[in-house]
Amino acid sequence: MKATSAGDGTGAAATTAAVPTARPADGGAIVIDGKAVAAKVRQSVSVLAHEFEGRFGRPPGLAVVQVGDDPASSIYVRNKRKSCQESGIASFAHDLPAGTTEAQLLALVHALNLDQRVDGILVQLPLPGRMDPNRVIDAIDPAKDVDGLHPVNVGLLAQKRPRLRPCTPYGVITLATEYGIALRGLRATVVGASNIVGRPMALELMLAGATVTVCHTGTRDLKSEVERAEVVVAAVGKPGTIPGEWIRPGAAVFDVGINRTATGKLVGDVEYESAAQRAGWITPVPGGVGPMTIAMLLSNVVAAALLRAGNQA
Ligand code: NAD
To answer: Which candidate among 69, 280, 291, 313 keeps its CA 20 to 30 Å from the CA of 34?
Structure first.
């Protein structure tokens, strides 16, 4: 078994103690089963959604808005609608033609903000290039922002009072919790600093008590930032960004990246095989973080419905 505190130099007992000491007999990492955890989250969402309907006489509702017919977006949107049905959440489809103007989209968002059957509003990104996604997200009522990307919700997370939490980072935290990875005190490196994943991921990790470093295209020495991390979250969108040999023995590795190789295979940002030899835990791609994003979206819809019902009572 590999040492878990090599090169740390802090001598922080709490930090090193949380890094795994029990690994599978073959010496490889514990492979985090995102599909199984997502199914568990969805099961509890379904119970809460049916309870909500029993109490309030209507199911929680999600409006899913798509502009145009980008094939990848269409698959995501279809999956979200299907997942709603399976979880007892009403889904309201708004498929707008590619030629829709930003003003028309904003008018729809305003109407959905006022629609009492709608607890969550999801505008599928990316939007056509002529539209400003920030203006569209800003227009969503923060109480219905189930993607958790509205500045109000990100701001609340930054202030340690999370309300509707950004789905993918929230999914990573849920995986860590389910696998008993105690994040408090750990050194975490987030690779990627986007508004959707990297930045809110850093806020979530701070909320969980980790000591967080965020890397981006301006980072001088990515290797050393990853090497000392006990938790690595990769969210770049480039295969092979993190070679397995950079992974600190025993670290927890969450690979958010989704990349398609020339042969059509889906891979993450981390070199999986070699990283899995060193890591304590690792998420595969596919089947790791991916299934959690939609599960946390559904969880946010029920949370938004309950919050709104409480506010209206
Ligand atoms: P993005 O392009 O908006 O951001 C990428 C970030 O990576 C930027 O902050 C950039 O500075 C940083 N970066 C680029 N090259 C780098 C390098 N060499 N070293 C360090 N940092 C570097 O992407 P995004 O929307 O955050 O998505 C990232 C990846 O996650 C993509 O593969 C995307 O498909 C995937 N994703 C997955 C899920 C999921 O549910 N699993 C959800 C959202 C995004």
So the answer is: 69
Nearest to 292, CA basis, from 255, 264, 261, 265: 255
Q: Which of 66, 119, 124, 141 is catalytic?
A: 124
How far away, in angstroms, is 257 Cα from ligand 1 center? 6
Rounded Cα–Cα distance for residues 212 and 202 (Å): 6
Query: Pairing between strand 30-31 and 281-282?
Result: parallel
152 lines ligand 1 (CB under 6 A): no
- What are the tens digits of pLDDT across the range 6-58? 333 333 333 333 444 456 667 799 999 999 999 999 999 999 999 999 999 99
The answer to whether the CB of 168 is under 6 A from ligand 1 is yes
Give residue-wise pLDDT tens across range 76-133: 999 999 999 999 999 999 999 999 999 999 999 999 999 999 999 999 999 999 999 9
Does the annotation count 26 as an active-site position?
no
pTM: 0.92
Identify the CA nearest to 87 among candidates 116, 123, 118, 49.
49
The one catalytic residue in 119, 141, 145, 147 is 147
